[in-house]
Design brief:
Blueprint lengths: L4 H28 L3 H10 L4 H6 L6 H20 L14 E7 L5 E6 L1 H19 L6 H4 L1 H25 L13 H7 L6 E2 L3 E2 H29 L4 H19 L1 H4 L3 H4 L5 H14 L2 H8 L6 H31 L12 E7 L5 E7 L3 H4 L3 H15 L10 H25 L1 H9 L10
Antiparallel strand pairs: 1-2, 3-4, 5-6
Helix pairs in contact: 1-7, 1-8, 1-13, 1-14, 5-9, 7-13, 9-10, 9-13, 9-14, 10-14, 10-15, 10-17, 15-17, 17-18, 18-19
């Protein structure tokens, strides 16, 4: 494939700017109470310089490195060594060995789904430590937040570089590799589709879910513990952020088998975009709301708190119900009921890289009849709720909503470009049947 200049410029900007954005936001909170305007005023109207800000920033520490190494190794042990038993206990939960989606080369990989089990074990141990064992302080994460930033960057770049070299020397499935001919593009977007070590260690599944998303709720708990330590209480805004984001994280692990059919696993190759992003971008920027509330404890009024809770829960309902409708439709091959009626769909035909013909059905009923990506609409409502819990004094906590809007709109466009190439005229019939992309009547 050829890489156009626009894509190449975008890759270079992301490689240069994304690490700087993470560093800027974390340091802004640590030194300026999360106020972007204070940073700019200080740099423009005082003796402060970027060098002086850098000098005040905590550096790499071996204490943080040891703690982070233990964390990653522990998650690897849970992922590789403990086959899932939760699916034998909880009705409706799908775990254990599951098939993924068909790759572009026509392969079907198997995955060990045990994320919910890992999340439960990790959090039980965290709570036992906080209340009984006292091996470490519940504030250990935020107390070492910037040293941990250096550690996660080291892992993120190491994993991305290893995956890049591995694709040339010993790819898992050579037929699923994609070389663009441009080193920067291949490094960022990835060459291998599903890089693996051995049969079960899948880079995509591990680094996206563990250690990043398992850590998400632990990071928020550490923020809440820090609020308690500093002020003697935990605000209702912090409780809301912990609650709403915990629902999202638990939903991810409850539906980890379903995640195997999403764009991250089905279509993205594994490069810096996923490797570094999962190690650094996700844990540091997805948790900005809790970090903001450590430095700016906000007690919301009852109407404000209720509005945030309702927005978050309605957004989650739309997000989950929309995805459930598609999953139900796929599992039953259309022999089901959606909103009390037999679902309608567009029958499509496509070919995999080996030339084999396949058929697919695109749902046009329920939420999927309102917009082609209505699950993203619910996701954005939840994102806005997290940010709204922080009030309206500063812009920084709203970065997450802005970022998710850009990400999901870009994902809409990218997914539809891929589907248009895959399904051809059948995709045109589908877009005629469901003309809205994200918001009915607007976009």
């Amino acid at each position: 494939m050829q890489v156009d200049w626009f894509s190449l410029i975008g890759v270079i900007l992301l490689l240069c700017c994304a690490p700087a954005i993470v560093f800027f936001f974390i340091v802004t909170c640590q030194q300026y109470q999360c106020s972007i305007s204070h940073v700019l005023i200080d740099l423009c109207s005082s003796d402060s310089t970027l060098l002086s800000v850098w000098d005040q920033t905590p550096s790499f520490s071996w204490t943080a490195a040891k703690a982070y190494s233990v964390w990653v190794i522990f998650q690897m042990v849970l992922y590789m060594s403990l086959p899932d038993i939760i699916h034998k206990i909880l009705p409706g939960y799908v775990g254990g060995v599951q098939d993924g989606a068909r790759t572009p080369a026509g392969l079907i990989n198997q995955y060990q789904i045990n994320g919910l089990q890992s999340w439960i074990i990790t959090h039980v141990l965290w709570l036992l430590n906080a209340h009984y064992f006292h091996w470490f302080s519940p504030t250990i994460i935020i107390d070492n937040w910037i040293p941990l930033l250096w550690c996660t960057n080291i892992l993120g770049y190491a994993v991305s570089s290893f995956a890049f070299i591995k694709a040339y020397l010993f790819p898992t499935n050579p037929e699923d590799c994609k070389f663009s001919g441009n080193i920067l593009y291949d490094y960022m977007m990835g060459i291998e589709f599903n890089p693996r070590i051995g049969r079960w260690f899948d880079f995509k599944l591990f680094f996206n879910g563990r250690p990043g998303i398992v850590a998400w709720t632990l990071i928020n708990l550490s923020y809440a513990a820090k609020q308690q330590e500093l002020y003697g209480y935990v605000t209702n805004s912090m409780i809301l952020v912990n609650l709403l984001q915990s629902i999202y994280v638990l939903d991810f692990f409850w539906n980890e088998a379903w995640y195997l059919k999403t764009i991250d696993i089905c279509h993205d190759h594994f490069g810096w975009y996923l490797g570094w992003g999962d190690c650094v971008w996700l844990p540091f920027l997805y948790t900005l709301q809790g970090l903001y509330l450590v430095y700016n404890p906000i007690q919301l009024s009852t109407p404000h708190a209720s509005g945030v809770l309702i927005l978050g829960l309605v957004g989650y309902y739309i997000f989950r119900s929309t995805n459930h409708q598609k999953d139900l439709f796929r599992r039953t091959e259309g022999n089901c009921s959606i909103w009390g009626q037999k679902p309608t769909y567009i029958e499509c035909k496509y070919h995999s890289a080996d030339g084999s013909a396949h058929h697919s059905k695109l749902l046009t009923s329920g939420f999927w009849g309102l917009a082609r990506h209505f699950n993203y609409t619910g996701d954005l409502m939840g994102s806005l709720a997290y940010c709204a819990a922080c009030g309206g004094t500063h812009l920084l906590p709203y970065f997450y909503f802005v970022y998710m809007t850009i990400l999901l709109v870009h994902r809409c466009v990218r997914d539809e470009h891929r589907c248009s190439a895959k399904y051809g005229q059948d995709w045109k019939r589908y877009t005629d049947a469901v003309p809205n992309r994200l918001i009915p009547g607007l976009f």
